[in-house]
Design brief:
Residues 13-237 form the DOG1 domain. This protein has 237 residues and is an all-alpha fold. It has helices spanning 13-40, 44-68, 72-76, 83-87, 98-113, 115-119, 132-162, 166-180, 189-226, 230-236, and strands spanning 3-4, 10-11. The protein has a two-stranded antiparallel sheet with strand order 1-2.
Length: 237
């Protein structure tokens, strides 16, 4: 299944890899832009929301390309991803619940570093002073996200079992028989078409699951950011 560029032109494997590399390079600039704006501009509170929205739009663009027209096998086993990315891979990308682990880890580190200031009642404006209301809403969101993750993981497990269902076993046997027949002059194109048709259906089925996972990734990211102030969102990046 072909990938599509912004102008609608089909992207092959090499072109998609180039898109991902460019996208990743731009993503790597975001932390610097956010921190610079937060620490150097006179009134960062007025400019940060727009910058945070731009970062979210960047993720949205990736998932737009990733979900509409892509080679599902390419996305699930992208050769350009690092070993670390592969180690934490979940249905073609990062696990949404990891966003909360990252948030709480950074919050704990910042809390420890600024405990003295916080004891004096100073407002840090970062993740060290998350309010009780924010923590409560974050906990609720985390629970919902984990449940949605489980549902998607169950769908993946079911589809993995279907890869070796009776239909595929029978088709595999037919292909093997045709291949092993010595001097066979029969036309096996019908069997090949049946295999291609079955595999295409299964790939499209998997594609729907990956789209659900991508949607959960993006909505989780947006929801977490919406629960934070702009300056807190910068520290969460």
């Amino acid at each position: 299944m072909a990938l599509m560029s912004e102008n609608g032109t089909a992207l092959d494997r090499e072109n998609f890899e180039e898109f991902y590399i460019r996208w990743k390079e731009k993503q790597n600039l975001h932390p610097h832009d956010l921190i610079t704006t937060a620490t150097t501009e006179p009134s960062p509170s007025s400019s940060l929301p727009g910058l945070v929205d731009r970062v979210l739009s960047h993720y949205k663009e990736y998932y737009r390309v990733n979900s509409k027209c892509f080679d599902i096998l390419l996305i699930l086993s992208a050769p350009w991803k690092t070993a670390l990315e592969d180690a934490f891979n979940w249905v073609g990308g990062w696990r949404p619940s990891a966003a909360f682990h990252l948030l709480y880890s950074k919050s704990g580190l910042q809390l420890e570093a600024k405990l003295a200031e916080l004891m004096k009642g100073e407002d840090m404006g970062d993740l060290s002073d998350l309010s009780s209301a924010q923590l409560s809403r974050m906990d609720k969101l985390q629970r919902i996200t984990i449940q949605q993750e489980r549902e998607i993981s169950e769908k993946v497990a079911k589809r993995q079992k279907r890869v070796a269902d009776q239909e595929m076993v029978e088709l595999s046997r037919d292909v093997s028989e045709v291949t092993q027949m010595q001097g066979d002059k029969s036309d096996d194109s019908e069997t090949a078409r049946a295999v291609d048709s079955t595999m295409k259906h299964k790939e499209e089925d998997f594609q729907l699951v990956v789209q659900s996972a991508d949607y959960l990734r993006l909505t989780t990211l947006k929801s977490v950011v919406n629960l934070l102030s702009p300056i807190q969102a910068v520290h969460c990046n």
